[in-house]
Amino acid sequence: MVEQPLTKHGLITCLSPLLIMSEGREEWLDAAINHAHSIHILGAGLNPERPAHRAVHDLNGRGWRLVPIHPRDAGNSILGRVIRPEIEPGITPDIVVMFLAPARAQAAVMSMIVRYGSEHMPLIWLQRGAESDELIEMLEENALKYVKQDCIVEYITRNNMQRNPRAEAYPWFRQISDEDGSGCSVWQAFEPLQDGSKFTTELEWVGDLSDLENSQHTIARYIRSLGLPDEQLVDTAIRLA
Questions:
Q1: Does CATH number 3.40.50.720 belong to domain 17-158?
Q2: Tens digit of pLDDT for each residue in 90-114?
Q3: Which one-letter DSSP state was computed for residue 166?
């Protein structure tokens, strides 16, 4: 993501929706969104009544790689977008959208500060209701770029934004524990945007090809180690399924 201009306090914050609409599009925010390849959506699970779940539907087809994050529903999918339990270790997101209560949003930001440091932090988008005075103070003290008092779906929709070129849809993969008690894990492969089959055993790892290429998770690293000479990683992962 390109570095954006800062306010006099060294921050980027989102103006109120009314002011944005009256002044037109925000160039710095357009640039951040257009340069993003992926949008990580914290709180996006299977409950169709939740705003985070609906956000995946609303942003689907606009060209971004959508990454739902929900610990309880991980391993399932929304419109073929696989749900992860957390931001994958080794992955640095472009935009992280918080559909979380303030305390959980603050904990998530604290974790990212520890992981990435201020220099490599993604743009933090606080959906309405996610912010608190303590969280805003933390963001400002660390001079982090953030958006508040606006909705990412509304911003993208009212400005008719599309990512160009569109992010490629990747196949995705899942490892679950066995059902027969043998102790052997089950590695599964799915087509791009294919909804996954139901499972009842423990989820051990899940992610798409991009995650598999970059993750520092033990399982992802192990799968990468099993490639044959001159074999593409995607072919390795499908062969092992």
A1: yes
A2: 999 999 999 999 999 999 999 999 9
A3: P
